[in-house]
Design a protein that fits this description.
Largest sheet: 2 strands, antiparallel
Low-confidence stretches: none
Number of helices: 3
Distance between the termini: 22 Å
Helix content: 25-40%
Strand content: 15-25%
Radius of gyration: 14 Å
Shape: globular
Structural class: alpha+beta
Length: 102
Amino acid sequence: VLRAVMQEVLEAEMDEALGASKSERTPERLGYRSGYYGRTLVTRVGKLELRVPQDRAGRFSTELFERYQRSERALVATLAEMYVQGVSTRKVKAITEELCGH
């Protein structure tokens, strides 16, 4: 579940960076997607295999973790705690976006 929430946040960050969701055509679009690359984060709850979206220009950078970061920070622990406490994945996503400055 933690992986799913983090994956949703990555997708939302990419949508925001490009000004459009996947396959959406708008005049405000700032770029295009270009697949994914794999990233493994080592957390207290185990390894998380994430698919990080890429844009064609190579400018997208997530706020969830730093460029070469391979282990978690307090964010992952906080996300896990929210889930354990029964917070919905939608609320966890909103809180994560707030923490990351979106």
